[in-house]
Amino acid sequence: MDNIADLLIRIKNGYSARKDVVLIPHSNIKEQIAKILVEEGYLKKLEVPAKGGSASGGKNKKFRVLELTLKYKAKKPVINTIKQISKQGVRIYRKEGEIPRVKQGYGITLVSTSQGLMTDKKAKKNNLGGEVIAQIW
To answer: Of the candidates 35, 49, 62, 103, which lies 20 to 30 Å from 24 by C-alpha distance?
Structure first.
C-alpha cells in the first residue's frame, strides 16, 4: 500500500466530510508531510500521541496514529486540491531548476531531496532537486 497516497486521500476525504480531526496510521514519511502542511498553514495542528494513547481520549489504540486537525477559512477547506505526482509505479524526479511551481506560487510542491522532505521554495533556495511527491493548493 502506498503510504503517501493513503495520507493525501484521508486528508481530502476528511475535508469532503467536513471533519475537524482525521486519524491516520503513523509512519515517518506521513509525519514529515503533515509537519510541512502545518508549517505552511494547510493544517491547523498535528498530534502524535504515544503508542497506546490518543490525544482525543481513546486509550485502546494498539498502534500509533497521527491526529491531524483540519483547517477551514470562512467554513471552506483551506486545501482545494491535493495531487500526488510520484506514484509507486512511476517516480518523477526533477533537477533544481525544473521543480514545478503550483498556481504561480500560491500552492506548494513537496519534494524529497537528499536533505529530507521540503517544499519547492525551500528546495530552490538550497539549490536541490529530487523526487516530486505531491502538489497542494
So the answer is: 103
Is residue 135 a contact partner of residue 117, using CB atoms and an 8 Å limit? no
Burial classification of residue 77, based on how many CB atoms lie within 10 Å of its CB (0-12 exposed, 13-18 middle, 19 or more buried): middle
What is the C-alpha separation between 7 and 132, in angstroms, rounded? 16
Q: Please provide the size of the chain in residues.
A: 137
In whole angstroms, how far apart are CA 20 and each of 11, 13, 85, 102, 127? 11, 11, 26, 26, 37
Three-state secondary structure call for residue 61:
coil
Asked if residues 98 and 129 have their Cβ atoms less than 8 Å apart, the reply is yes
Q: For residue range 51-108, list pLDDT tens digits in order.
A: 755 555 555 557 899 999 999 999 999 999 999 999 999 999 999 999 999 998 899 9
Sign of CA pseudo-dihedral 52, 55, 60, 66:
negative
Q: Could you tell me the sign of the dihedral formed by the alpha carbons of 110, 67, 79, 72, in that order?
A: negative
* pTM for this prediction: 0.89
Side chain identity at residue 46, one-letter code: L
- How many CB atoms are closer than 10 A to CB 111? 28
